[in-house]
Amino acid sequence: MTTGALIFMLASWAFVLGLTFWSFRKIMQSQKHFDPDGIGPESPPVPGAAGGPPPRD
Amino acid sequence: MSSPKEVQQSNEAWGSRIGLILAMAGNAVGLGNFLRFPGQAAANGGGSFMIPYFIAFLLLGIPLMWIEWGIGRNGGRYRKGHIPGMFAAIWRHPMAKYLGVIGLVIPLVVLIYYTYIESWTLAFTVFSLTGDYFGRNTPEEMTAYLQSFQAIGDSSIHGIWKPFFFFFITLFVNIYILSKGISGGIEKLAKIGMPILFIFAVILAIAVFFLPTGTTGASPVDGLQFIYAPDFSRMGEARVWLAAAGQIFFTLSVGMGTLQTYASYLSTKDDIVLSGVATAATNETAEVVLGGSIAIPAAVAFFGVSGAMAIAQSGSFNLGFVTMPLIFQQMPFGRLLGAMWFGLLFFAGITSSVAMATPIVAFFREEFGIRRETVAWSVGGVAMIFGLLQILWFQHGMLDEWDFWGGTFGLAVMAFIEVILFMWIFKPENAWRALHQGADIRIPSIFKFVMTYITPVYLGVILVSWGIQDAIPTLLLERAAPGTEFYITMSRLIIVGFIVFFLVMIRLAWKRNGYDDRKGFREVEDTPLGEPVMAEVTR
After folding, report:
1. How large is the ipTM?
2. S-S: B94 plus which of B151, B458, B517, B528, CB 3.0-4.6 Å?
3. pTM of the model
4. Within an 8 Å CB–CB cutoff, is residue A13 touching chain B?
């Protein structure tokens, strides 16, 4: 295997594996945001506020 | 507030975050990860292909993933788990809901032909375990074996009943899981299927790299060399960049309407930014690390570099269903490894196909109050009828036709519409806020610019390019094999029939529930028992 091919293979693998491990590690550290009851937000978002729909005309 | 029982009756829910991510990743990881990716890499400059591939991942794949999660979760706030409702929630215009028809037609079309292909993998899992194809030692013999199963040519090998039998079983399993709902069916499948898929893939990759050097003098490591050897002279070719963008596009299952439905069952307290990255990263690991380490290295070891190149260029099905069975016949524990290979493809397929009917189930549940099981089995009935037609007309090009309009060009059209709606009509500021509600991480600010300008331009270039290179010649039947024109025309008319049917259903749904397109939906925290879930309206 040539050096060029090896470098591209290792760099590609490092990128995707690194991203996968990083994201799952973050997920394991922050379980607090998951809301398994699936009933939606505790209180309806205010229109125009963060995450709310655009203000109505 | 409703009791949990009432909520269960009124809406779906994910049981755990890992279950959600595995289901999302299962939706993305499909046959293309193991069959299409290595061939594309090898045919488009090897290692240097990975540069446009990862650029497309960052500028197209990840942004589209976030946009679809964002559209889905935003729709979920109004209890809309289907694209017509999600589009109407973003754009208060009568056209929005009708644009969303694409998010009902594409998953239905793809579900039907994809389940048929998936049934091949189930059948070949059984054929591997029983050693049914062992003894067919030449490409010609294996091709005849595959074609007989596809109801082409010599029917004496399989008999006419086998393709229908395996299609029926595969479809039944899909619809059964779908009928059990998000938590009870799809999430359970993902928690079982995804680990099995990864275990099988790792075992196969290890087995391949213990293969001895073949008669051609090539080893499996030469297969990696074949995939990754950089050819920088190809970097300047537009087609290489388009191939990379296309591969990213297909592999992440964006433009299908399924990610949005999955995301609609999340609340604004739930993270979607990090979960979107984790989903995309899991898919990329399956594709780059595992997908590139099985089929092509094995093919190179047995057939040499030039032989593997010819195989890769002859198509993914040839690689998966002709070449790999030939290789397994030469390997120790060939039956078991063959069953693992096709079992791996089956799990990759079924975790994707169960997702495809979810937008349709959501539409009829939410807008017409029809029970999930009833919708699921009805979709199964439709898929059965047109799936049988797929089997009978496979040799006449029906599958290719549906794959192009539904599974290729349609996805790009859908994704383009989504980007425009979410980033331009909904506005970048609102999109940004919607994405960051409950987020565990912040998206780097540069992506706001990327998602607003770069991603739509990237998609526009792909659409125009595919339109000129493929859509127009396909539409004009320039590439149709002689004698297939009638079947291809009929195949298209069926898709047109689906479009008309869903347009009428959308119209009926909006009239039935009294939605006012200009005023939008009322946000829903919960729906009391006895009140139709869909009847949250501004009358």
Report:
1. 0.86
2. B517
3. 0.87
4. yes
